[in-house]
User: Which sequence fits this backbone?
């Protein structure tokens, strides 16, 4: 596969050149090496999955991508430019949004308000005009609300618009979290185990939303997921990690037939 | 006021639309909540939208007499599609949107539909599945394009693009549209609705403009419905009631139809719209009352006490006030205070504050339930009707409302009870024919225009009100010759909040037995309060404590059945609680949630045998169909219990 060219998938989506490249990343916490010399890329418009057994370093990898962790070695390239150490909010402004493995919503706030917080990076008016509901603040609020309402409509959560998220069942909280990430209108969406703890029906719903986001808005998606069935169904390419190392990278079919991957999942005797 | 005019020149729905666009130009015709805001369309705007779509239909080559199926939830766009279809001389055929693809395919094939107007990807996918097998189906017009960007669009048309195309070609096509509108009259088919059919395949009921408009006129006058009224359209569009309320009566009197944002938000949208005219099946009112009771049980002690005191007083005064009886001053003050503290806010939360005319129908409604709403001061009444009658056969006039009757004949309706007890009617709303089914038409409607309802009932001598006993074909005899009417017992059982659905068997047997479905909301809440753990419907249904509770309910019903002179033989001797909820997807209920007795009897034959042969437990396996059409099966071991019966009341010799 040529690294720079665009290509068209079997279902007719155009996958562009790489938008995000991580090169030779190594991340250490004291003596613990969480990620060891990993390189891969995420192409524009694709659904990229990162899989691996527990403790393989998947979430750490996501945290490197969205700038929460600063790796000791290696480079992160975004849109063809090397990225310097940044604060997470600066990275959010670059168009990267994420959801969390353990839901991180404001429990006491309504669904609507939670999703509104996703618009924060797009708000320009200062605090005073917002407090006074005056000038640009009003028009801005209306414009942001419209985008949020479209997200609510897209995720079919109109019925819980005004419900405090702490009262919602788990599957809905996950959906609200996705909504907040979508409200930021990201170019790259990072999903950390979006389907953990869901039943089959909820997983089907979530898969549909992920594919629709990719399809409708052309959002590039990188996701971590444990459910192999789901990953193989929705991902264009898969990175497999084990003990902080990359052991496989390719299409779902390639990965499925990779001996190292089979060993990592089924287990082999360690000498 | 237009209500006093005769039908005259206003003899088709499109003509009523033109009139409304003139005299109610700036008044709202449709409201829909979208993106969290209520959008509204005036009658003038509605007329423009409908004409644009009608012109769009002409660009597709729709011919007079074609059938256009409509599949979607209650949204203004689909009501427009129906009237646009009528405008070009086609016949709109609304379908149940939750039906599976093969059910839809049968109907589309039967009416040779050439075009379908479908809501979204879900419905379009169903159409794509069946399109190859349907020779006549040429294209699908879809409203919501999301998810379909890469679909092959050769036979798919975007609703709004079609409207735009119609607007663009208006100059060329307006003449043709006018010609088609002029060619229609009172006998032109207005709509075709498929009856859900408790037995066999659905039948297409052909209703003419005369049926719909005469019925709407009569009933609007009956309840004095006028342009300022409003309804919330949330019942399936394929159901005749929705067509009459949201199109027939709305176009006749020019009132506004509100559409909820999504099916799940209906309750909140109802509270925001505050309709003045409201219909809901007994199930809905039951569910609402259950949720009120559940929330009251969780409330503090003082609130519970206040609720009890106010409701006890309202129960006595509310219905009397509604019936226009004179009330003492002290009671009036007390009722007003109660309204301030409890019943007013409660009605507001339920979205029923402004309801001036409320109807319920379809099933019998429990007296307790009925009284609850009437004590709140809501003018809830009953009507009796069917698709073939354009809904209305009988309805209760203001001031003559009772739980056990269905009212007096609607305007223009004649009633007759034959010697076997079956109810017949003749009315301006009586249907034209069953589509492509002359035999059924002949069996149902005689040359003089009398239509058989299939229901057994009688007219009360004193009040002139009709009372319905059961489906005529379900009324049978027990072995000892006494009368067996399953619905009579089932209704009594269903009046308990714990019981969601039940099926009673006993025709040609010694005794009656029953299947019971528990109400997961009510029983689930009860289980929570009593520390009973369960993980599924099946587990809760099989719990011994639940069985004990249901047994008490069954025995109470037996005691009450024993009091009835004719039907005291129908006491339930043995029962079981089913391991799954009866479901329309499994063919056990109709799409309007009525039980299909024969299919259930066939499917659960093993359980019925066990109920009669005295065993106390039986294991069984049942096939279930998921919403996407896949099949699976669940197995369970069910307990069978005996219920105490009571001495039968002697028939006076």
Assistant:
């Amino acid at each position: 596969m040529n690294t720079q060219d665009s290509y068209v998938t079997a279902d007719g989506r155009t996958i562009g050149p790489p938008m995000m490249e991580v090169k030779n990343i190594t991340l250490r916490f004291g003596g613990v090496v969480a990620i060891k010399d990993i390189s891969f890329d995420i192409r524009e418009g694709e659904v990229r999955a990162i899989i691996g057994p527990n403790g393989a370093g998947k979430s750490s990898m996501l945290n490197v991508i969205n700038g929460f962790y600063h790796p000791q070695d290696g480079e992160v390239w975004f849109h063809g430019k090397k990225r310097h150490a940044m604060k997470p909010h600066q990275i959010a402004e670059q168009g990267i949004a994420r959801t969390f493995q353990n839901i991180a919503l404001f429990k006491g706030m309504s669904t609507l308000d939670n999703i509104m917080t996703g618009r924060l990076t797009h708000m320009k008016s200062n605090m005073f005009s917002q407090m006074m509901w005056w000038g640009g603040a009003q028009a801005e609020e209306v414009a942001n609300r419209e985008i949020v309402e479209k997200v609510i409509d897209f995720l079919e959560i109109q019925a819980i618009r005004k419900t405090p998220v702490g009262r919602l069942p788990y599957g809905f909280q996950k959906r609200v979290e996705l909504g907040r990430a979508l409200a930021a209108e990201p170019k790259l969406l990072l999903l950390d185990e979006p389907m953990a703890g869901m039943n089959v029906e909820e997983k089907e719903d979530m898969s549909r939303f992920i594919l629709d986001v990719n399809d409708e808005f052309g959002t590039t998606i990188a996701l971590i997921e444990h459910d192999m069935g789901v990953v193989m169904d929705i991902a264009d390419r898969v990175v497999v990690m084990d003990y902080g190392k990359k052991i496989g990278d390719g299409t779902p079919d390639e990965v499925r037939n990779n001996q190292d991957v089979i060993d990592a999942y089924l287990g082999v005797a360690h000498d | 006021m237009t209500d006093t005019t005769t039908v005259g020149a206003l003899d088709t729905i499109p003509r009523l639309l033109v009139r409304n666009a003139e005299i109610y130009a700036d008044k709202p015709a449709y409201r829909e909540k979208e993106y969290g805001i209520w959008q509204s369309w005036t009658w003038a705007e509605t007329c423009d939208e409908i004409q644009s779509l009608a012109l769009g239909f002409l660009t597709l080559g729709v011919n007079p007499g074609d059938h256009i199926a409509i599949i979607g939830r209650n949204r203004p766009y689909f009501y427009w599609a129906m009237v646009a279809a009528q405008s070009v001389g086609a016949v709109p055929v609304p379908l149940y949107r939750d039906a599976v693809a093969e059910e839809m395919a049968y109907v589309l094939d039967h009416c040779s539909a050439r075009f379908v107007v479908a809501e979204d990807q879900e419905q379009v996918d169903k159409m794509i599945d069946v399109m190859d097998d349907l020779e006549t189906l040429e294209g699908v017009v879809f409203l919501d394009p999301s998810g379909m960007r890469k679909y092959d669009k050769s036979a798919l048309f975007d609703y709004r693009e079609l409207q735009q195309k119609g607007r663009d070609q208006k100059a060329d096509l307006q003449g043709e549209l006018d010609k088609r509108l002029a060619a229609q009259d009172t006998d032109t088919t207005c709509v075709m609705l498929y009856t859900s059919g408790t037995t066999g395949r659905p039948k297409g009921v052909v209703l003419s403009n005369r049926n719909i408009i005469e019925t709407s006129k009569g009933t609007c006058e009956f309840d004095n419905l006028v342009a300022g009224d409003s309804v919330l359209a949330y019942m399936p569009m394929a159901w005749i009631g929705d067509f009459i309320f949201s199109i027939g009566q709305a176009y006749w009197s020019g009132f506004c139809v509100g559409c909820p944002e999504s099916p799940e938000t209906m309750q909140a949208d109802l509270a925001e719209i505050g309709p003045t005219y409201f219909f809901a099946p007994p199930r809905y009112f039951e569910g609402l009352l259950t949720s009120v009771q559940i929330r009251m049980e969780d409330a503090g002690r003082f609130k519970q006490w206040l609720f009890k005191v106010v409701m006890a007083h309202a129960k006595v005064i509310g219905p009397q006030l509604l019936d226009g009886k004179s009330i003492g001053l002290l009671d009036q003050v007390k009722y007003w205070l109660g309204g301030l503290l409890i019943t007013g806010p409660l009605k507001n939360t339920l979205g029923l504050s402004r309801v001036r005319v409320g109807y319920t129908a379809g099933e019998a409604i429990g007296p307790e339930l009925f009284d609850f709403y009437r004590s709140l001061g809501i003018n809830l009444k009953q009507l009796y009707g069917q698709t073939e009658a354009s809904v209305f056969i009988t309805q209760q006039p203001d001031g003559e409302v009772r739980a056990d009757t269905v009212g007096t004949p609607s305007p223009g309706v004649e009633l007759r009870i034959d010697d076997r007890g079956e109810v017949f009617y003749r009315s301006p709303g009586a249907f034209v024919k069953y589509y492509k089914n002359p035999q059924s038409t002949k069996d149902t409607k005689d040359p003089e225009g009398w239509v058989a309802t299939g229901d057994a009932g009688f007219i009360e001598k004193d009040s002139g009100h009709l009372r319905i006993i059961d489906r005529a074909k379900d009324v049978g005899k027990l072995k000892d010759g006494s009368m067996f009417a399953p619905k009579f017992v089932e209704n009594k059982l269903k009046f308990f909040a714990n019981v969601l659905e039940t099926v009673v068997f006993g025709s040609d047997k010694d005794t009656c037995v029953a299947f019971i479905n528990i109400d997961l909301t009510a029983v689930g809440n009860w289980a929570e309060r009593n520390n009973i753990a369960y993980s599924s419907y099946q587990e809760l249904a099989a719990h011994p404590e639940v069985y004990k509770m249901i047994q008490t309910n069954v025995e109470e019903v037996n005691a009450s059945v024993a009091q009835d002179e004719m039907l005291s033989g129908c006491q339930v001797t043995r029962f079981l609680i089913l391991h799954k909820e009866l479901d329309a997807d499994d063919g056990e209920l109709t799409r309007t949630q009525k039980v299909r007795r024969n299919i259930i009897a066939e499917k659960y034959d093993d359980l019925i045998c066990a109920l009669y042969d005295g065993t106390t437990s039986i294991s069984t396996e049942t096939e279930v169909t998921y919403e996407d059409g896949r099949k699976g099966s669940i197995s369970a071991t069910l307990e069978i219990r005996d219920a105490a019966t009571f001495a039968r009341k002697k028939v006076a010799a």
Notes: DSSP finds ten helices and twelve strands in chain A.
